[in-house]
Amino acid sequence: MMVEEVKEHLLHTIIPFWKNLRDNEHGGYYGWLGYDLALDKKAVKGCILNSRITWFFANAYTLLKDESLLDEAKHGFAFMKDYCFDKENGGIYWSITYDGKPEDTTKHTYNQAFCIYALSSYYEASKDEEALAMAKELFHIIEEKCTDEVGYLEAFDREFHLIENDKLSENGVIADKTMNTLLHVFEAYTELYRVSKDTEVKKRLEWILDTIADKIYNPKLHRQEVFFDKNYNSILDLHSYGHDIETAWLLNRGVDVLGEEAYQKKMGPIIDDLTAQVYKVAFDGHSLANECEKGVVNTHRVWWVQAETVIGFLNGYQRNPEKKEYLEAAKSEWQFIKDYVIDKREGSEWFWEVDENGKPYPDRPIVEPWKCPYHNGRMCIEVIRRDIDVA
């Protein structure tokens, strides 16, 4: 059964792999493992990478109750607290040198959000009140320093002066606002509200849901827009398949945590529409294409997109059990992952990306500041938690 296979993969591949990336000398987790499986112990340590690893081990502990996983989460938390936080100006740096010095002091809203995500889950696992206090501090930093009258801004220097958003702008555009940052602020606030029930956080969750529904979601094209000017006007014809299938289930999680029937009703049709459109235009029966820019499809099979596809289609099936095709899609995607995306070499984990026939791209590392157990580890955790009969 799929659930048993996924649990086996989590226990015997993903968890041991990331435990082996632990840096006991300088703290945190090593930042680079090349395609050739050569570990660079002096590579930059991305703060997103370390937040996501901390989040992963905290959630793995909450699920599995293995004390060694809590120890890993504590190790990640200590590194974040001691090195990633700017103790003078507040907020989280973008990256740290291997031995704990600020490397890139950019303060990106996306990065602050992922730290909240990690701290909230770590608080749930450890009951460490300091972690919750830090998460709330970052919440207030985002709300007070990273917003304008329209929504969430993107990038700032060390002292929170606005700078160009080159971290999250791709496809040849520099965006004032992005769907990606808004989505992950929402994801982080969902976790923070779930563990704290803070009414201020709840208000912002509702505001973000309204913004997604009214400005990000494009009902005519059955997708989200991705890159925006300062007033949330779309500036690029782009359909990000992976983000849409991820958004669908994260919205579902968010409205469930929020517990407000009005938002269940408002967001339900959007969740269903995003799921249906991705299934219709991006899924080939086995795996999911990356994105479509100006009508041209990028057919690369990226690791995180494949992981989110499994969760997204399982979520779609749970919402609409008559849609057996979503269940079959999740099973087929898992088969593709097993066959082609998981790197079978000893000491490895998942390839960054493969082509539509499953051939890996050897110019992509196995670990780097974005490549971490957040997506594939979360996929395993979600499959196990949902425990759907997918024999």
Automatic annotation (TrEMBL):
It comes from Roseburia yibonii. The keyword Iron-sulfur does not apply. The keyword Isomerase applies. This is Cellobiose 2-epimerase. It is an enzyme of class 5 (isomerase). Catalyzes the reversible epimerization of cellobiose to 4-O-beta-D-glucopyranosyl-D-mannose (Glc-Man). It comes from the Bacteria. Belongs to the N-acylglucosamine 2-epimerase family. Transmembrane segments: none annotated. It catalyses: D-cellobiose = beta-D-glucosyl-(1->4)-D-mannopyranose. Its EC number is 5.1.3.11. Keywords: Isomerase. InterPro entries: 6-hairpin_glycosidase_sf, 6hp_glycosidase-like_sf, AGE/CE, Cellobiose_2_epim.
